[in-house]
């Protein structure tokens, strides 16, 4: 409740550290770390070491959430322009959106993938996923909802080619190439659970079905719903 101070260190005393608080990748133009960083609200902190004699260090990402949740928490961090830029942001209408729902031609109808960082925290606060990913807007007409579904891809071009984690307790699958952070489709802004409930009811019928795990999403440190 009173916040905390975050201190950053690097193994080489000749390194400098740069950081950002908006989800973007820290570069030489980022804020130079000098003293501890005071965290008093939901914040995504991204930092790396810089040394003129070396390649830039690997980016370290931590999202600090002030509220304790009763569901797993997924945090996505990315350059704000990847989401909100009028011309290139995947989450916004953009210049070519139709006038009526579902706004065909909008940026969120394009097959655009943007690099991001994903963290997943279990109920006990332990970080189980911590890797760079690709994200795309997912779905059909539900793209027109204010809360849009996101497909999340583990790719080697981002660092790691899989998610090595059992996302769904009722399925013995411990490795995934992609998952969907789903807005509940046509059930959005209503019960939210109808599709998940239907899939759960047929779990003993030996058919392919959609796994279901409610979770909380944060985008660049901002609460983004269930």
Mean pLDDT: 95
> Which structural class best describes the helix and strand composition?
mainly beta
The fraction of residues in strands falls at 25-35%
Largest sheet: 7 strands, mixed
Number of helices: 2
Question: Roughly what percent helix?
Answer: under 10%
Q: Which residue ranges are poorly predicted, with pLDDT under 50 across at least 5 consecutive positions?
A: none
Strand order of the largest sheet: 11-10-9-8-7-12-13
DSSP strand count: 13
SSE string: EEEEEEEHEEEEHEE
What is the general shape? globular
**Distance N to C terminus:** 23 Å
What Rg is obtained from the alpha carbons, in whole angstroms?
A: 19 Å
Tell me what you see in this structure.
With 226 residues, the protein is mainly beta. The protein is 6% helix and 29% strand. It is built from two helices and 13 strands; from the N terminus they run βββββββαββββαββ. It has a seven-stranded mixed beta sheet with strand order 11-10-9-8-7-12-13, with no helix packed on it. The protein has a four-stranded antiparallel beta sheet with strand order 3-2-5-6, with no helix packed on it. It has a two-stranded antiparallel ribbon with strand order 1-4. Strand 12 and strand 13 form a beta hairpin. It starts with a strand and ends with a strand. The model has no long low-confidence stretch (mean pLDDT 95).
Strands, helices and their partners?
Elements: E1 4-6, E2 16-20, E3 31-32, E4 37-39, E5 43-50, E6 60-64, E7 73-77, H1 80-84, E8 114-121, E9 127-138, E10 149-153, E11 178-181, H2 194-201, E12 216-219, E13 222-223
Parallel strand pairs: 7-12
Antiparallel strand pairs: 1-4, 2-3, 2-5, 5-6, 7-8, 8-9, 9-10, 10-11, 12-13
């Amino acid at each position: 409740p009173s916040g905390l101070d975050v201190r950053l260190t690097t193994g080489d005393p000749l390194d400098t550290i740069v950081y950002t608080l908006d989800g973007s990748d820290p570069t030489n133009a980022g804020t130079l770390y000098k003293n501890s960083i005071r965290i008093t609200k939901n914040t995504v902190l991204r930092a790396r070491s810089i040394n003129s004699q070396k390649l830039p260090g690997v980016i370290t990402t931590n999202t600090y959430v002030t509220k304790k949740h009763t569901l797993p928490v997924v945090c996505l961090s990315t350059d704000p322009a990847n989401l909100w830029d009028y011309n290139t942001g995947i989450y916004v209408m953009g210049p070519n959106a139709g006038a009526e729902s579902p706004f065909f031609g909008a940026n969120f109808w394009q097959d655009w993938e943007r690099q991001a960082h994903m963290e997943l925290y279990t109920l006990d606060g332990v970080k189980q996923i911590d890797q760079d990913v690709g994200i795309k807007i997912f779905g059909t007409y539900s793209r027109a909802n204010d809360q849009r579904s996101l497909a999340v891809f583990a790719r080697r071009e981002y660092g790691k080619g899989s998610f090595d984690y059992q996302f769904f307790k009722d399925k013995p699958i411990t490795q995934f190439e992609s998952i969907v952070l789903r807005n509940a489709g046509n059930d959005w802004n209503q019960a939210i659970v109808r599709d998940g409930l239907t899939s759960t009811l047929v779990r003993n019928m030996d058919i392919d079905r959609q796994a279901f795990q409610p979770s909380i999403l944060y985008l660049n440190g901002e609460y983004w719903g269930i």
